[in-house]
Write a structure and sequence with these properties.
This protein is of the alpha/beta class. It has 2 domains: about 1-40, no CATH class; about 45-165, Jelly Rolls (Sandwich). It is about 15% helix and about 40% strand. The chain contains 3 helices and 10 strands; from the N terminus they run ααββββαββββββ. It has helices spanning about 1-10, 30-40, 90-95, and strands at about 45-50, 50-55, 70-75, 80-85, 105-115, 120-125, 130-135, 135-140, 140-150, 155-165. The strands form 2 sheets. The protein has a 6-stranded mixed beta sheet with strand order 1-3-5-9-10-7, with no helix packed on it. It has a 4-stranded mixed beta sheet with strand order 2-4-6-8, with no helix packed on it. The chain starts with a helix and ends with a strand.
């Protein structure tokens, strides 16, 4: 029993669908869709070292350095001047979120950017399918909370919903 409970509550996944199980169109928003979608809400910390004046985040379904869809991204010290933080492409973010995400504007999740780089950071869109609403500039020693909203299969918005000081 302990082994089952341990597997169920495994770090970085709330519920892991069995390998090889792929939902059909009717099941995409049923139990299989729920199992995959619930995992999108599991948050963890992802750190990335900053060098020079630009850093590019990634989007992956697994825990990785600089992963924009993990919930928290910490920009570590090392930048030599004002820092540009480039987001991944819309296609990369959509692939990392999985195929159970609704494309009707009803799906959103929070992202936090922690600026420990020692420099002011400016968030930039990964492509023309992304829009930042509100300020996209973070002074050093602050955390910016963004709501990622999927408007359709090729459009994302990142809304600034708050900032706090470390």
């Amino acid at each position: 029993m302990n082994r089952l409970l341990e597997a169920f509550l495994r770090f970085s996944a709330i519920f892991n669908p069995p390998a090889g199980m792929v939902p059909d169109a009717f099941a995409a928003y049923g139990l299989f869709g729920l199992m995959q979608n619930v995992n999108n809400y599991a948050e963890s910390l992802s750190s990335i070292s900053t060098f020079g004046t630009s850093v590019t985040l990634i989007a992956a379904s697994a825990v990785a350095s600089g992963n924009a869809v993990q919930g928290f991204v910490q920009l570590n010290a090392g930048a030599s001047g004002a820092l540009t933080v480039n987001f991944p492409t819309t296609a990369a973010i959509m692939a990392a979120l999985g195929n159970s995400v609704a494309f009707d504007g009803s799906y959103s999740e929070s992202l936090h950017i922690v600026n420990n780089s020692g420099q002011t950071a400016t968030l930039t869109a990964g492509d023309a399918g992304q829009t930042f609403l509100g300020s996209a500039t973070l002074v050093t020693g602050t955390v910016r909370k963004l709501m990622l909203r999927v408007l359709n299969s090729s459009t994302l918005t990142f809304t600034n919903v708050g900032t706090w000081t470390l």
